[in-house]
Predict the 3D structure of the following.
Amino acid sequence: MKLSLKKKDADIDGVKTAKPKPSPDSTVSSNGSSKFSFTSPFKKSSKSSVEEGPPPIAALEIRVGRISSVANHERDDKLYCMDVDVGEDEPRKIASGLRSVMSAQELEGRAVLVLCNLKPRKIAKFESHGTILCASNDVSVKLVAVPVDARVGERVTVPGFVFGSDEPLSEKKVEKEKVFEKVAPYFKTNQFGVPEFCHRPLMTSAGVCTCAIGNASPSSDFVEPRKEQ
């Protein structure tokens, strides 16, 4: 899945990346449940038979959050200013570009996924501390949904990848090492709408995350649906 962020006064919301070539799909078992397969998408070095390491997904701090308030930005009619609880002492202030596709009533109280370890950015003079993950296709943008029993503040994991105690990376290192750009091409939602990294689901303690759009490209909350020509 291609995870692309579109610039909006700040360069974190930015770089489109190409999809990886390998694309094995999830299958459905005889009892109707989704079954996740995995094929390594990483190229082998020309000088060695050892595969290159996977993108550093564990370096990213993706947590379950809950939107506690939504207000229109005073200076930009395309932006919301949100308070999002991610289990810290105070809610995070997050600027969101979802104003053109979702009402404030649709967003307030929703459980969401928040990419937390991004450097704070001034967006239309509003300091934003993170971004909300969505999925988009040619016609719509939808939030990534979180299981109802998932705990606010818990960290999202991916089966088969180690999330050590010394992770995630600092905000400064995430930016300097372009971690998000490296990880982005390996995200997508499968045919059932399950967000995956390298064909493995994004997990909470209460189960997998989901989305109303299948076979889509996850994005930040600044991405608008692409208009058909």
Remarks:
- The mean pLDDT is 79.
